[in-house]
Amino acid sequence: MTKQLMLGNAALARGLYEAGCSVASSYPGTPSTEVTEELAKYDEIYSEWAPNEKVAMETAFGACIGGKRSFCAMKHVGLNVAADPLFTMSYTGVNAGMVICVADDAGMHSSQNEQDSRHYAIAAKVPMLKPSDSSEAIEFAKAAYEISEQFDTPVIIKMCTRVAHSQSVVQTSERVVPPVKPYVKDIPKNVMMPGNAKRKHPLVEERTRKLAEFAETSPLNRIEWGGTELGFITSSTSYQYVKEVFGDSVSVLKLGMVYPLPEKLIKEFAQKVTKLAVIEELDPIIEEYCKCLGLEVSGKDVLPLDGEYSQNMIAKAFGKTLDEGKKLDEALPARPPMMCAGCPHRGVFYLLSKHKCTVFGDIGCYTLGAVAPLYALDVSTCMGASIPAVHGFNKALGNESEGKSVAVIGDSTFMHSGMTGLANVAYNQSNSTVFILDNSITGMTGHQQNPTTGYNIKGDPAGKIDLKALCRAMGFERVRVVDPYDLAQTEQALKEELSVQAPSVIISRRPCALLKTVKHNPPLKVCEGDCKSCKACMKLGCPAISMKNGKAVIDPTLCLGCGVCKQLCKFNAIVEE
Amino acid sequence: METKNIMIVGVGGQGSLLASKLLGHMLLKYGYDVKVSEVHGMSQRGGSVVTYVRYGDKVYSPIIDKGEADCIVAFELLEAARWTEYLKTGGQIVVNTQQTDPMPVIIGAMQYPENLVEKMQNLGVKIDACDCLSLANQAGSTKAVNIVLMGKLSNYFPFPEEDWIQAIQECVPKKFIELNKKAFALGRNSR
User: Fold this and answer.
1) What's the pLDDT band for A254 if we cut at 50, 70, 90?
2) Beta strands A230-234 and A251-255: pairing type?
3) pLDDT tens digits, residue range B138-162?
4) How confident is residue A220, by pLDDT bands cut at 50, 70 and 90?
């Protein structure tokens, strides 16, 4: 094949395809989403969106036990959800190969924390590979399956935002599918009850020793000798930054396998360079390993524990002076992300803000309900936390908080990990109100189907979970569906459900305004003569509305005619074109 | 050849991914090593977005740092100003003069800064400014702003126009090819 530019995530998918991956199950999460979206384009691979990462990993596990190479992908925080199966699948091992992609987000471009996933490889005693560009993503996918089958272990491929979302040059090759490994019942290997697990643990330790031995000579790790005054141990994008700054003037030990680490190779490298430094984003894992080996090493003494690195950052840390460009001498208005014009969530957040509710939020586009001018969220932490948190808040404060507090959670997040929280509300009966913001898609990650949409990853008809019937089946007597474009209806529901002494669910249902299948009304306009400059419409924080010369104006290129602002205008100044 | 750096900056949703795809496609065709770094996810929701395009004999880092860009292609005026410090001394900005108010301006907490083109010129920056939105409208759709800008940018490369047109044909869905060819020509000839 000829050379082509390929996104890191697409390249990883290509590598998995070429290596004969047959089953893939994932939950979307930036920056990992495109791996599975790309896999779904290969008809030879069964791929799916699972309701969450734990389900995805367990599905991939079942598939590999069945004898076919399998895969699952998630973002860093998704691995928290899937940690439970990971730790014990390390004990059982695999049958055919199993590869897990975890994509970290140093710099938090689209995440709620900056955890370093390498800790999971260490804690679960599972090997981890870390590609530094698209070409390596293809190559490492194949290596990962080989390692998985040779050492009888799942293998993690760790991506990061800059590898996942950068295009670089690749050459593709043909798909080669290894023969199916017949499933053979093996209770001591696959049933992890104490007696079997006790026999397994020492084997896991032995496997790690063998993998460390493998890492000493594997081509995944390599030394690029240059000047020996300064030597860097590094991997992934940090390797690219080091090469960018120093070229061949320094020596580099590039680690493609970041767990387990090659002790002899590191010592040999350290001996031949005058000064040794480790460049790794986030936690000082390689650096501390070097220190345990008794090596004198620089790293976090000159570089930060947080955020992404860059070439300038590394250059400055090692004494290079730079011409860093000129800045305008004034504070420029920031441009943070915000809810889109026509977003169905906006009306709900306007009402929650108006009624001064304490709002426990969740993970999705609607986390943006926290920003100006709505400031509608009080708390947001992780997937599914909104419902248990409002339950706990109400249990703690009783009458003080009941009737004023709500949880808001999207349809996809509800399927991911909201249901168990809702079961607790139903079971332990807190007087809590839950808004399920059903925009009929997984929005923030770029429109993936989920169990409530009725379509699968390929867009074909699939099973469809009825949210209203589900909540009723859980024991909620008060479940109602509202249209968030209808402010009066939504406000009435909010007031009624907050006033009753019973747990309740309000499903706010309106598809994401960005969905191609959604038809929009023509844009609205403000009749300048009728606008009294009261700014009621401005409270929505709609990007299509602004004040020009004291009057509200609507940008017709942005407005989708949702009509929410029109309902707020007491002077009927907002009209259809 | 030393690595060249081009940044494409704008507001999430303006179509910078197609612009970088087209550019990357062209550069690869001319035999360069290329890296293109994009932004997906949350920051796309109307936020400030940046794409890095780097090319040369061998490209390592996927990103462009402060003081490194040879050229910044800006879909929006304030975004050009925001990223100016990423430009090399004597670097070039190609900017669409369209103004999109960010939330602090919409809610009246801040003013949209005035005379930005002049202020950037005072820093010694070369500026090629143009109302690309009008040209995109003329081509048939406001959504073609990205290709109008690529047309303008093409003047800074030695590649013949027919190669750009072919790249458009290879990167754009069939039904939009004519629109985008028109938009490209309007941008390229707008000086």
Assistant:
1) very high
2) parallel
3) 999 988 999 999 999 999 999 999 9
4) very high
Cβ neighbours of A567 (radius 10 Å) = 17
Nearest CA-CA distance, residue B48 and chain A, Å:
5
Task: Count each helix (H run) and each strand (E run) in chain B, helices first.
Answer: 8, 6
Three-class DSSP category at A552: strand
Structure tokens, A35: 């791996």
Residue A395 CA to residue A383 CA, distance in Å, equals 21
Distance from CA of A431 to the nearest CA of B (A): 33
What pLDDT sits at residue A577?
79
Q: Which domains does chain A have, with CATH numbers?
A: 2-217 (3.40.50.970), 221-323 (3.40.50.920), 345-509 (3.40.50.970), 524-576 (3.30.70.20)
Interior/surface letters A323-350, b for 16+ CB within 10 angstroms, e for the rest = eebbebeeebbebbbbbbbbbbbbbbbb
What's the pLDDT tens digit per position in A270-290?
A: 999 999 999 999 999 999 999
pTM strictly above 0.80: yes
CA B13 to chain centre: 13
**Residue with the two structure tokens 């290969």:** A42
Residue A230 has pLDDT above 60, yes or no: yes
Q: Which ipTM was obtained for this model?
A: 0.95
Mutate to test the interface with A, among B63, B100, B120 (most CBs of A within 10 A): B63
**Using H for helix, E for strand and C for coil, what is the string for A409-454?**
EEHHHHHHHHHHHHHHHHHHCCCCEEEEEECCCECCCCCECCCCCC
Output the CA angle A412-A414-A419, nearest 5 degrees: 145
- Across A47-54, average pLDDT: 98
> In angstroms, rounded to a whole number, what is the distance separating the alpha carbons of residues A309 and A298?
16
Average pLDDT over residues A151-176: 98
Alpha helices, H only, A66-153: 76-81, 83-92, 118-124, 134-151
Contact residues, chain B, for A335 at CB < 8 Å: 11, 46-48, 78-79, 82, 102-103
Number of residues that make up chain B: 191
- The fraction of chain A above a pLDDT of 90, given in percent, is 96
* A162 vs B: CB within 8 A: yes
b/e map A74-90, b = 16+ CB within 10 Å: bbbbbbbbbeebbeebb
* CA count, 13 A, side-chain hemisphere, A223: 19
**How many angstroms separate the CA atoms of B22 and B48, rounded?**
21
What one-letter code names the amino acid at A232?
F
Amino acid of residue A187: I
Chain B residues within an 8 Å CB radius of A339: 45-46
Report the topology of domain B4-189.
Pyruvate-ferredoxin Oxidoreductase; domain 3 (3.40.920)
**Sequence-distant (≥ 6) Cβ neighbours of residue A569 within 8 angstroms:** A536, A537
Cα distance from N-terminal residue to C-terminal residue, chain B: 29
The one-character DSSP state at A374 is: T
